[in-house]
Amino acid sequence: MKGALVTGAGMRIGRAFATALAADGFFVFVHHHRSAAAARETVAAITAAGGKAKAVRADLSSAKQAESLVGRCQAKGVQLTCLVNSASLFELDRAPMATAAGFDRHMAVNLRAPLLLSQALARQLPDRETGVIVNVLDQKLLSHHACAWPASRPASPCAAAARPMRALPSSIGRTRSASGSPQKISCAPCGLWWRHRATLAMC
Questions:
Q1: If we measure between CA atoms, which residue out of 53, 48, 50 comes closest to residue 17?
Q2: d(Cα 77, Cα 40) in Å, to the nearest integer?
Q3: DSSP 87
Q4: Which domain holds residue 185?
Q5: What pLDDT, in 10s, does the model give residues 111-168?
Q6: DSSP state, 96?
Q7: Which of 15, 42, 130, 193 counts the most CB atoms within 10 A of its CB?
Q8: H or E element in which residue 53 lies
Q9: Is residue 79 part of a domain?
Q10: At what angle do helices 12-23 and 36-48 cross, to 10 degrees?
Q11: pTM above 0.90, yes or no
């Protein structure tokens, strides 16, 4: 059975991703940080509908916890093949009052964690297995809302990297597989990033 890890799956769009993947037959690992009760509700909704799910906790502002999260997504007969980077930190603030600590927290959760999780997913895929990574960007990326200055900064590098890839219909760019051989990065429309074994596709 294929598994999917959805970060921030306790509520809102993360829960929608989780329930949709479960309906498609995935075993869903419902990530949460402080929203344990909401995550349990997501798991309950999935199981009530006949799906399978398990809640997993991690503080994505911690590099150590982010790096270990994929390895903790274990269930008998389940191979993790899908990652949805949906979790985000969104603190209202304005540029003149923004702090270094707040900036670092947003970068850690919204930019560094998706990278670490994507690397971990790629490393654990077996030979000839195909996986997918979906990165969710907030609409504040386009509006650059003055009251959410720190939250909108981490998405900019992701979008900048994704923009030239989305403009082309086929594979572009190169990265390294776990075996060290170069692989092309493939992408599908709407930010859905398909990759061959151990090929990291980030947006």
A1: 53
A2: 22
A3: -
A4: 2-195
A5: 899 999 999 999 999 888 888 999 887 665 555 554 444 444 444 455 444 443 333 2
A6: G
A7: 42
A8: strand 52-57
A9: yes
A10: 30
A11: no
